[in-house]
Design brief:
Helix content is about 50%, strand content about 0%.
Length: about 160
């Protein structure tokens, strides 16, 4: 039989005698990719298929409206793991927002050096990277002290003096 080259992994394979036009080898990863590609093409080309794909999860959620509540009750470890991952995602989003802030573009070069101190330094001998969290904060201009007492204090003093 004729050997072919898989379009995904590019390894040689022999097509099935039942599928002589086979273009993808039988490896599970290649088959998964083939099915995903077919699905993507079908959704793009067939509006009826696309609508069925959109409606299916909505119907399932309507039939199983309490699924996620039950899942969270039965899997507290997954709930905690998700909570921790969400915390990390939130931190990354805040850092992205900070990086996209126009004032961050006004940063100047710093001649600062990094000194690593601690008992575990010998573990870093062959590895220059060390985990760190860096926060860049923009200083606010100093507030001007009030020229006189606040308006509330003045009103209260005037009202007390006129009312007494």
């Amino acid at each position: 039989m004729v050997e072919r080259q898989c379009r995904y992994c590019e390894r040689s394979f022999q097509p099935s005698k039942y599928q002589p036009g086979q273009l993808v080898c039988g490896e599970p990863a290649c088959q998964r990719q083939r099915r995903a590609d077919y699905h993507r093409q079908k959704v793009a080309a067939d509006p009826e298929y696309r609508q069925v794909c959109l409606d299916s999860p909505q119907k399932w959620r309507a039939r199983n409206s309490d699924y996620w509540r039950r899942y969270r009750e039965q899997h507290p470890a997954a709930v905690e793991r998700n909570r921790q991952q969400q915390h990390v995602r939130d931190q990354k989003q805040r850092l992205r927002d900070l990086a996209n802030n126009n004032s961050a573009f006004d940063l100047k070069h710093s001649a600062a050096e990094i000194w690593l101190l601690g008992a575990g330094l010998r573990n870093l001998a062959n590895n220059n990277s060390a985990p760190a969290q860096v926060w860049i904060l923009e200083a606010l201009p100093p507030r001007k002290p009030p020229a006189s007492e606040s308006c509330k204090q003045q009103r209260a003093g005037i009202q007390a003096a006129s009312g007494g």
